[in-house]
User: What shape does this take?
Amino acid sequence: MRWKTADYTGWGRVHRASGQLARPERESTLEALVVEEPSPAIGMCRSYGDACLNDGGRAIDMTRMDRVLSFDADTGVIEVEGGCQIGELARLFAPQGWLPAVMPGTGFATVAGCIANDVHGKNHHGIGSFGQHVISLTLLNGDKKQVISPKRSAGLFKATVGGLGQTGVIASAKLQMIPCKGDVMMVTERRIEGWDEFLSALDGSKATYTVGWIDATAKGDDLGRGILEEGETGAGLVPKPKKSRSIPFNAPGFALSKPVVRLFNKLYYSRVPKSGRTTVKPISDFFFPLDAIHDWNRLYGKRGFHQFQCVVPIAQADALREMLEKIANSGLASPLAVLKRMGDGRSGYMSFPMEGYTLAVDFPNRAGAKDLIQSLIDMTETAGGRIYLAKDSLATGGQLKPMYPEFADYQAEVQKADPDGHYITDIIRRLDLRSKS
Assistant: This one.
């Protein structure tokens, strides 16, 4: 297998890496690579910060390992290679009545990436995190090839799910999919006028899939206004998906200036009638709305962007409101801001979810953004919450470790699995997650 030098970035394009990449196409080639040159695995690089980077080192690009290995149409159990994309599974199997149990905000995420970050979706309040639907996975580490599960090598499994690739390479996984009524979504949208109303609407929603867009520029009585989307799968005539578009160049700095963002948010809020509306959408348009715009990260310009995502316990909702006030007063937020209700489902020592409310906001990488995000991270820790490592690009180990009470268990399992540090990546170095101190 030839190694080729390449430059690559996280999706936020703030952190960058240069190093040698190998792109195996067969399991036998992958196994030989892991024996001869154990290296961290990467996928589509859709994590926003540096979780997918190994600057100056080698990495195994898993994107060509994307086959469906088996599928049981009666039970919905599927086995796939680690590089298989979530959106492709939805496209192939929704017409047959099955969907991946959990789908993140992009269909380009790989199955192995979903496991390594224990991702959540718009149905977390009802069904939990991705790792809770992993029946088993095949883990390669040097000359070891192990099939692990929640009951088989349970500690290693919990260090692998949400563990940022530190226990080896996830070659394949067996997943339990969930039934769906068809390959369309019935989506109800309604305006929410303020913060307290938004929390009440999220708490009271009975929908299978729920997500809120929030206007992160709104202040005063309008603080927390937004749009609540509730979705259910359905069958029937499938509308045409949105035509894919591309962002061919980096947007200029004024494209996301404060007046532009404020105007966009006002118009976006107003697009939903006061009485609300129900529409039929292709599945991809509901779950992966931004995937139709290729390279949408270029909208933030050549300097890229940061995303801050936290979750706080239900009892600390006021702390989240304070964060939103701070964001609104900063004038730094972009139009991309999401509020969701989470359940308590999580599967790994370093899994992000906890029961509460999660807020995610994008910030162009410009003056003031780093200091603001550092302040929001500190506020999250004080509130007893967590930040999401799949999105983080700025936290320190001192901020992060207290948020994850099972960190010591994770570290112990990783040390056993990879004592020589073959799988260390940039995020691990930045957060000092392998240090014994």
User: Anything to note?
Assistant: Residues 7 and 52 are 12 Å apart (CA to CA). The chain has a mean pLDDT of 95.
